[in-house]
Amino acid sequence: xxxxxxxxxxxxxxxxxxxxxxxxxxxxxxxxxxxxxxxxxxxxxxxxxxxxxxxxxxxxxxxxxxxxxxxxxxxxxxxxxxxxxxxxxxxxxxxxxxxxxxxxxxxxxxxxxxxxxxxxxxxxxxx
Length: 127
Known about the structure:
By secondary structure, this protein is α+β, with helices and mostly antiparallel strands. 40% of the residues lie in helices and 27% in strands. A five-stranded mixed sheet has the order 3-2-1-4-5.
């Protein structure tokens, strides 16, 4: 397991109040595949909170399966989550809202700017 992935999972509970403002709830199991070995991470999301663990007592509401190498690229902003699913490099099943919520925790790729911020800068320059 890479240090970047460990840091990502460790950061979720502290970042959740700012990221998860909508009424969301459920458990997402993230399966990180590395050859013949798969590690399971459980992320339970609720409004304003996230809990991360390696085991869960009940079945998950959704499952994301991705290679460890690709997940590291996701958590470091070198790859986009939705693009990996659309290219079938990662698979997702279950409540899609949980995957969309997880995407909010992923960093943007380098050089990507929020179009709203770009518009604000343009408006300030024009004024």
